[in-house]
Amino acid sequence: MAPSTNKLNVGILGATGTVGQRFILLLAEHPNFTIHTLGASSSSTGKTYKEAVLGRWKQSRAVPAHVADQEMKECVAKNFAQCDVVFSGLDSGPASTVEPEFRSANLRVFSNARNYRMDPLCPLVVPLVNTSHLDLIPHQRASLSPQLNQGFIVCNANCSTTGIMPPLKALMDAFGPLDKVLVSTLQAISGAGYPGLSAFDVHDNVVPYIGSEEEKIESESKKILGSINGPKTAFDEAQCTISAACNRVPVLDGHMECVSLSFQRRPPPSVEDVKRALHDFRCEAQELGCHSAPAQAITVHEEVDRPQPRLDRDHQNGSGVNVGRVRPCPVLDIKFVVLSNNVMIGAATSSVMNAEVALAKGYLS
Ligand SMILES: NC(=O)C1=CN([C@@H]2O[C@H](COP(=O)(O)OP(=O)(O)OC[C@H]3O[C@@H](n4cnc5c(N)ncnc54)[C@H](OP(=O)(O)O)[C@@H]3O)[C@@H](O)[C@H]2O)C=CC1
Ligand SMILES: N[C@@H](CC(=O)OP(=O)(O)O)C(=O)O
């Protein structure tokens, strides 16, 4: 996508949070978007951004100078009326009312929150996988109000769901429908937001429970891997069976996921065929030349002990996913490990890339 001199104004809801801080850094020098309005809770309203994040800015880069003195606004639509696009890093509590209020005010919302992911009117988009689902936007508008000619909500997925989608999609495209998928996650602390779990709970420990996470992976995956119907008014879910087991581990950023799967087609592909399909997988965001798209959607690691969170989570600025240890599975067909950066492609980068694709497809005009 060619850098534009007419950048779109963007707002960020939840701008002070774990995901919000990534939005700030991703959008501070973006060729298509310029940060215009920042919002968070009432405890931040009226402060400058740097005052609002004092003691809570957890990035190695400093707060961008042109953002530091911006005044924090209450998250109501009238404060964001000048924004062409709104990125939401809101907690699910406020997201349930704020995001539809913004849509009703004809604002375009790209949300990280879980609330509307399974809404039949809302595209649930992993930008490396199913940007074709953005084509449901006109139906969302038409279904809600004749006055809704610009607004919409587009969601990105749960961070653990997001990580496994590119490899599953690559294998479905190459070898036909999947039959069964088992996934066990090792999820980073930052997935729980800031301050997240206490050190007492997570240090020297593994917690084998993350509320609702397994259910979200199992349901969201089928919507993302499904297709939209001919008239672009509904989703047909993918038919495979998915079982997830989720664990919190003492890693700061980067979700690791151990996947075993089987194909419907017999005989199944070889390990070498699987590696080639993963490596060759390309997505629409790449074809459109979107600014945030990784050069390589799936990086296949050959070293026996990679990928690892500390070493590989920042590869390509966390915009792609990493796969390693591709090998035969004696129970199902194939097994491998996936590493994705939960706060980048698992959250903020997905929203930004979704907006870049929406811009290229004309949904932001
Ligand atoms: N962390 C991750 O890896 C991922 C997170 N998500 C989702 O993204 C969203 C944000 O998560 P995360 O950044 O981790 O959460 P944080 O807890 O770190 O940040 C929450 C943000 O929401 C703001 N906020 C809280 N209450 C209100 C309110 N009543 N009105 C307006 N703003 C409010 C906070 O503002 P203030 O600072 O003023 O309190 C803060 O900016 C959540 O919905 C989460 O489920 C999705 C994928 C991955
Ligand atoms: N639950 C995820 C992060 C998250 O916020 O998920 P969701 O957006 O689906 O609530 C984790 O703890 O790693």
Automatic annotation (TrEMBL):
Show the coiled coil region(s). none
Q: Which UniProt keywords apply?
A: Amino-acid biosynthesis, Methionine biosynthesis, NADP, Oxidoreductase, Threonine biosynthesis
Entries under SUPFAM superfamilies matching the protein: Glyceraldehyde-3-phosphate dehydrogenase-like, C-terminal domain (SSF55347), NAD(P)-binding Rossmann-fold domains (SSF51735)
User: Which InterPro entries does this one have?
Assistant: ASADH-related, Asp_semi-ald_DH_pep-lack, NAD(P)-bd_dom_sf, Semialdehyde_DH_NAD-bd, Semialdhyde_DH_dimer_dom
Write out the pathway annotation from the protein's UniProt entry: Amino-acid biosynthesis; L-threonine biosynthesis; L-threonine from L-aspartate: step 2/5; Amino-acid biosynthesis; L-methionine biosynthesis via de novo pathway; L-homoserine from L-aspartate: step 2/3
Its Gene Ontology biological processes?
Answer: methionine biosynthetic process; threonine biosynthetic process
| SMART domains referenced in this protein's UniProt entry, alphabetically | Semialdhyde_dh (SM00859)
List GO molecular-function terms, semicolon-separated.
Answer: aspartate-semialdehyde dehydrogenase activity; NAD binding; NADP binding; protein dimerization activity
As its record notes, the protein acts as a catalyst of: L-aspartate 4-semialdehyde + phosphate + NADP(+) = 4-phospho-L-aspartate + NADPH + H(+)
| Active site residues per record | 159, 255
Q: Where is the Semialdehyde dehydrogenase NAD-binding domain?
A: 9-137
Q: What is its EC number?
A: 1.2.1.11
Family statement: Belongs to the aspartate-semialdehyde dehydrogenase family.
Purpose of the protein: Catalyzes the NADPH-dependent formation of L-aspartate 4-semialdehyde (L-ASA) by the reductive dephosphorylation of 4-phospho-L-aspartate. Mediates the second step in the biosynthesis of amino acids that derive from aspartate (the aspartate family of amino acids), including methioinine and threonine, the latter of which is a precursor to isoleucine.
**UniProt xrefs under NCBIfam families:** asd_EA (TIGR00978), PRK08664.1 (NF006416)
Q: What is this protein called?
A: Aspartate-semialdehyde dehydrogenase
Organism, per UniProt? Acaromyces ingoldii
